[in-house]
Amino acid sequence: MEYRELIERAWDDRALLQEAAVRDAIFHTIEMLDRGEVRVAEPAGEEWKVNDWVKKAVILYFPLRKMEKMEAGPFEFHDKIPLKKNFSELGVRVVPHALARYGAYLAPGVIMMPSYVNIGAYVDEGTMVDTWATVGSCAQVGKHVHLSGGVGLGGVLEPVQAAPVIIEDNCFVGSRCIVVEGVRVRREAVLGANVVLTQSTRIIDVTGPEPVEYRGVVPPRSVVIPGSYTKKFPAGEYQVPCALIIGKRKESTNKKTSLNDALREYNVPV
User: Fold this and answer.
1) What gap in Å lies between CA 120 and CA 137, rounded to an integer?
2) Which residues neighbour 29 within 8 Å (Cβ) at sequence distance 6 or greater?
3) Domain ranges in the chain?
4) Assessment of whether the complete model's pTM goes beyond 0.90
5) How far is CA 88 from CA 60, 84, 143, 218, 251, in A?
6) What is the helix (H) or strand (E) element at residue 242, kind and residue range?
7) Cα–Cα–Cα angle for 136, 24, 39, rounded to 5 degrees
8) 145: which of 84, 178, 183, 258 is 20 to 30 A away, CA to CA?
């Protein structure tokens, strides 16, 4: 793609940002991001592919923009990135005081309660972004996901090779959960309230006779709650946070019934 080549060249030589063709390539890439025509990361079979050049375009977009005043009713903002608009044409419900930045994609059927979606993020159809939830820059959220109140999905721009946070289709993310550092929550998983996931968090499946440990990924249909384990330090032994997989959502029932059953069966607070 011509845009990609121009952006890669400008990434290595910032003086090229003065060229009209390079600036147009960056602006058009952000426009395509806003429409969902390109993504920072996209499914590639069972894995995900990070499109480094798109993330570079987002980073290079900032120095090309000037600070400007923006007004929405009685509210005033002062920033480089404009707010996303035309929600009615997009088929997106946006409740005051929800905000999304230009360059974030919101698919038809998305509902934004008072919440925030940053540039480069992708939120797929039928997803609920509940009150005070934040979707960080470049985070990828699948179809029919529920991000409960106060959820924080971390953003990532640099290093450009780093994978963003990925929440796959039909997941439920409970209140005040934090998912950062490119953690991937796979399809139909349920995170109970206050689960915190980083790349160093131990995610321990305790459903079998022996614990099975994961890092950086929650397996499909897992039901996860906060936990802790004992760790020795020079000053003594202390409890360190972890996440516990305590069960699985069943494939035999539909998504809605399966979710309700999982929450009730495992007494998961959300």
Assistant:
1) 5
2) 3, 7, 38, 54, 57
3) 168-270
4) yes
5) 30, 12, 19, 35, 35
6) strand 236-248
7) 35
8) 84
Q: Which residues contact 2 (CB under 8 A, 6 or more apart)?
A: 25
Contact at 8 Å (CB) between 51 and 43? no
| Whole-angstrom distance, CA of residue 113 vs CA of residue 223 | 25
User: Counting Cβ atoms within 10 Å, is residue 14 exposed (0-12), middle (13-18) or buried (19+)?
Assistant: exposed
Q: pLDDT tens digits for 17-34?
A: 999 999 999 999 999 999
Whether the pLDDT of residue 171 is over 90: the answer is yes
**Which pLDDT tens digit goes with each residue over 231-249?**
999 999 999 999 999 999 9
| Average of per-residue pLDDT across 199-203 | 97
16: phi then psi, degrees, rounded to nearest 5: -70, -10
Give the separation between CA 152 and CA 75, rounded to whole angstroms: 24
Answer whether 167's CB lies under 8 Å from 179's CB: yes
pLDDT at 269: 82
Q: Within 10 Å of residue 148's Cβ, how many Cβ atoms?
A: 21
